Amino acid sequence: MSLIEQNRQQAFFILNVQKETIKRQLQQLHEDAQNYQSKSTAMIEDIRQLSSREDSENPASLLGEISALETSLHTMNEFYSSVDKKLKVDDTRLKALENSIKKIVDKNKDLLPRPWEFSETITLDQNKNQGNVQISEDKMEMSVSPSDCLGLTARLSWCTTRASQSFSQGLHYWEVAVGGCESWAVGVVEQSRVKGIQTQAASQEKNLWILECDGGELSVLHNNDFSRVKENNIQTLGVFLDCNKGRLKFYNVNTGSILHSFIAQFKHAVYPMFRIRAQKDSMARLKICNLMHIDAGHYDSISTSVISEMPIEEAMELSSEGSH
d(Cα 258, Cα 216) in Å, to the nearest integer? Predict the structure, then answer.
């Protein structure tokens, strides 16, 4: 975002400079054209008078005036021949701008390896949840009260809900902020299991493909099997689903690394599924990220006069340093 903001400022500066340069060129061209038009009108009148004097005066006496008119015609011809060249725009700055945009695109590919182009708007289904789950008004956050407010059974059990949306084909991607809860699970559940979300432990359920964090340990679970994931301290989780190829990938959004990849043959449509467990001293919260609208926030402005005088690489470095 810092690079984009810096590039936006530089783009407006370059385009304004280009506009002012072209305006000055056009104004000068307009003045020259008016001047030569006046000269052309006067020349026509001079030629008419020379024609009328041709019979009454010695032709030799007219040679000097004819030679002057010839010189004027040559000058005028050169002017009109050069108009096409004067109208050509120097696109050096614009090419530099295109190059800087390419650099930003390449930088974004490095910073954002996640498949954002397949982003989906996911909302929670209030009618498909289990346990003491509270769903926010925008249906993008689920929460559970502190365990001190709950009975023993409620403290130990998972609170589960799923999305209103299901997918049976195509590519889909969503992100979940999991930093607000100590124990959570995110993944997909096949439609054949949705009608009755079971209460048994996640490791005993079938037709689920989930990534679970419990007691600080990260695991992937499917069909009674589980395996540990070395990485931990996940704040935002990315989920990529390829229904056609039967692939499910989990990303650590903050680092861009792939945590785990499932290969599965989905027989039915799958729903995004979410679980959290009550924690002792605070509300446990899990929030679906809205990828359709990103608030750019506040970025320090950089003087366009400074940007214009430095290479794009240096300007980018300055913008990057100013954002920290």
Answer: 18
How far apart are alpha carbons 187 and 160 in whole angstroms? 11
Q: Is 90 left (phi over 0), alpha (psi -120 to 50) or beta?
A: beta
CA 185/CA 234 separation, integer angstroms: 12
Instruction: Give yes or no for residue 301 having a pLDDT over 50.
Output: no
For residue 284, what are the β-bridge partners? 144
pLDDT, mean over the chain: 77
pTM: 0.55
**The tokens of 204 are what?**
């005993």
Only one residue has tokens 């931990």, namely 232
Which DSSP helix (H) or strand (E) runs through 68?
Answer: helix 59-87
Whether the Cβ atoms of residue 139 and residue 164 lie closer than 8 Å to each other: yes
Q: How many CB atoms lie within 10 A of CB 229?
A: 18
Distance CA 319, CA 300 (A): 8
| Of 187, 192, 221, residue with least CA distance to 205 | 221
Report residue 112's pLDDT band, with 50, 70 and 90 as the boundaries: low
How would you class 37 by CB atoms within 10 Å of its CB: exposed for 0-12, middle for 13-18, buried for 19 or more? exposed
Q: What angle do CA 34, 36, 39 make, to 5 degrees?
A: 115
pLDDT in tens, 18-54: 888 888 888 888 888 888 888 888 888 777 777 777 7
The first and second tokens of residue 3, run together, are: 């690079």
Distance from CA of residue 274 to its chain's centroid?
27
Mode of pairing for the β-strands spanning 184-190 and 270-276: antiparallel
Residues in CB range of 255: below 8 A, 6 or more apart: 231
